[in-house]
Amino acid sequence: MKYSYNLDRKEIVFASTSELNASFKDLCAVCDSIRYRAVPNAIATLDGVINDSRPIEYRRHNKYMGSRHELGGKKGRYPMKCASMVRKVLVNATANARNKGEDPDAMYVVHACANKTYEVPRSPPKGIRSVRTGGYGYTPMRRSNLAFAKVEIGLSTKDVKELGARMKRALKATSRTDKAVEIAPKQQKQKKPAAKPTAAEAAPKAQANTASQKKPDEAKKV
Predict the structure, then answer these.
(1) How far is it, in rounded angstroms, from Cα 19 to Cα 17?
(2) pLDDT, tens digit, for every residue of 130-183?
(3) For the whole model, what pTM was predicted?
(4) What whole-number distance in Å separates Cα of residue 107 and Cα of residue 14?
(5) Domains of the chain: which residue ranges?
(6) Which of 73, 107, 126, 136 is at a distance of 20 to 30 A from 173, taking alpha carbons?
(7) Which neighbouring-strand residues pair with 154?
(8) For the chain, first and last CA: distance in Å?
(9) 150 with 115: CB under 8 angstroms?
C-alpha cells in the first residue's frame, strides 16, 4: 500500500487499513487529535473518545456543530466509531514497532491521516421514490453513495534527523502540553494526632463523668 508520507521512511514504522465504512471527515478529525503526540497519550485520547468522556475538536467540516466546554468553547463531537478504528491501526503500529526492536512507549505519532478511497453508487429503490415514504437523505430522489476511507499512521522517535523543522516544533509543543495535562496523583494528607487536653480542660470533663456515675447508684439505694 502506498503511503502519503513524503519524507524518508527508513526509521518510520507504518500501519494502515483501507475500505473502512466510515466518514473520512470524522477520521480526519480523529487523526488530527493524535498527530505529534506520544503513543501512550494518543491511546489515552482515543480511549476517552470511545468511552464518551472526551470530545474531539473539528477544525473543518463543522458547520452547524455545537461547541464543547471541554474544548474551551470550540466545536467538537464524540466520533466513537472512527476513534475505535483509528485505535486499532495505532495498536497495529505499536506491534510493528515492537517487532522491529523499538519501544513504542517512547515513540511519537509523526504521521496520521485519513483519505477517501472510492464510492459505491447507490440510489433508493423504485418502490420508495415518493414524497410520502421518502428515501435516502432529506430528498426522496437524492443519491446516497456509499463512501469508503483509509487510515495511515506512522510512528517514530523525536530525534530522527529526517523530520522537518515544522514537525520537530510540533513534537516539542505537544510534548509540553501532554506533560501539563498529566495530573499527578493526589497525596493523601496525614492526619495529625489529636493534642492532649491540658489539666484545666480535663478537670471539668472528669467531674462530669464522676457525676454521671453517681446518679445510677443513688437510684438503686432509693
Answers:
(1) 7
(2) 555 555 545 545 567 888 999 999 998 876 655 666 666 666 666 655 554 444
(3) 0.67
(4) 12
(5) 13-181
(6) 73
(7) 14, 111
(8) 103
(9) yes
